[in-house]
Amino acid sequence: MKTQNSTFACRSIVVLSLSIGLSSVACKNHAESTASNPKERTAQSAPLPQQGIPTVESKIRDDDLLLWKSRERLLPNQESLTGIQFFDQNNGWIATHEGSVYRTTDGGNRWQRIKPPIPNEAYISSFFFTNISDGWIACGLKSSDVLEPRGNKVWLFRTKDSGRTWTLQYQNEAVQLLRLRFANEQEGWAVGTQFVMRDTLQTVPFLIRTIDEGANWINLSGNLSITRPGNGFTDVYADSSSDATLLAWNGDIFRTVNGGQDWQQVAVLHNEPEQTYMGHLVKLSNGGGMLAAGGADSLEGFWGVLTRRDPDGRVKQYRVNCYISDLVAISDTTLLISGHIILPASRFTTAQRQGVILHSSDGGQTWSTVYRSAVSSLNALAVSDACTVWAVGENGLVLNLNIP
């Protein structure tokens, strides 16, 4: 089971999904790997919110299921669909964990399957298109030996012709890339973790940036004082060539306004167990507001977390009984999340996971279920116009919902 993940002017839609997916297996492994490492929450150059941030238990109701009309289809190869991105009503892309990408030019009626030339047994961890034909994929290969970090390899491939040809523009080892995002065609960011052997195998945050269309990638990891064992970056949001925001898997958020030379810590996650894995970051339109989402699905428990930071620095945390795999902000208060819930076990059955999409009109305090799926998870969201939400999930599921 895997979860994991363009901006346009359209009515009140101000932020689109960070729609590049990760596998929930990978997310779970990252969350569990942090259990033996203390979280780092050291401020760098700005005061952080004080302890005692209230955590609100969000409520979920099911009375909107019939209002949101859905259309489903299963792609024939039944791959794990982990990311989706739309540019307008017609043109969109899907990425799969197994290493394929799909393209539509007719609003999702037909999807063309494309196989980039990625190495054998590699998977796609993230993808991003700057326009309908120019895009990138980040690929990874997991080491077969847990004591050999160099077996973890990454590659970045680019296409300029809608996937007909691909060019390798970056490769590295002892690294895992979790998110890829571009501010424009020239300037992009990729984040993840680096594996180092220091008595034991440890992870440290990893960050690279390009300003020349990927011809060169600059390692900026050393510019952050949190590059200590037990953390990593899971998401990046690039407002411009110089302004970017990073999310660490423990919930810390950092921002730069000078292209990554200096960073300011702007938010932390409070009173959360080590298993909580924060994987998605969304910037809001209200002058610096942001949302971070994630959760845990492990032996220690099951929960989802949504952190909201307002422009004045105040932070709220919401707990919801849904693992959050992706997040879309239609407005500052109207939100959609995808993910999965656990159905309770009965005397005759074991607990099962069910993919869901939830909607909130009050910034995350309450949620309504607008879609339930037979597949185990819905991994990523995107918006193609003012009335249509797209989602992808396990077993090749592609879904679109009409916003009532």
Detailed description of the structure:
- The chain is an all-beta fold and 404 residues long.
- It has a single domain (24-40, 53-402), classed as YVTN repeat-like/Quinoprotein amine dehydrogenase (Methylamine Dehydrogenase, Chain H, 7 Propeller), CATH 2.130.10.10.
- The chain contains one helix and 30 strands.
- The protein has one helix at 24-33; strands at residues 55-57, 59-61, 69-74, 81-86, 92-96, 101-104, 112-114, 123-129, 135-141, 153-159, 167-173, 175-182, 188-198, 200-210, 218-219, 233-238, 244-248, 253-256, 264-267, 277-283, 290-298, 301-309, 315-320, 323-329, 335-343, 352-360, 366-372, 378-385, 388-393, 397-402.
- It has a five-stranded mixed beta sheet with strand order 1-23-22-21-20. The chain has a five-stranded mixed beta sheet with strand order 2-27-26-25-24, with no helix packed on it. A four-stranded antiparallel beta sheet has the order 3-30-29-28, with no helix packed on it.
- Strand 18 (253-256) and strand 19 form a beta hairpin.
- The longest helix is centred in the first third of the chain and has 10 residues, at 24-33.
- Residues 1-53 have low confidence and may be disordered.
CATH fourth-tier homologous superfamily: YVTN repeat-like/Quinoprotein amine dehydrogenase
Radius of gyration: 19 Å
Shape: globular
The percentage of residues in β strands lies in: over 45%
Strand order, biggest sheet? 1-23-22-21-20
Helix content: under 10%
Counting H and I runs of at least 4 residues, what is the number of helices? 1
Low-confidence stretches: 1-53
Task: Give a quick account of the main beta sheet: strands, pairing sense, barrel closure.
Answer: 5 strands, mixed
Q: Name the average pLDDT.
A: 84
Alpha carbon gap, first and last residue: 30 Å
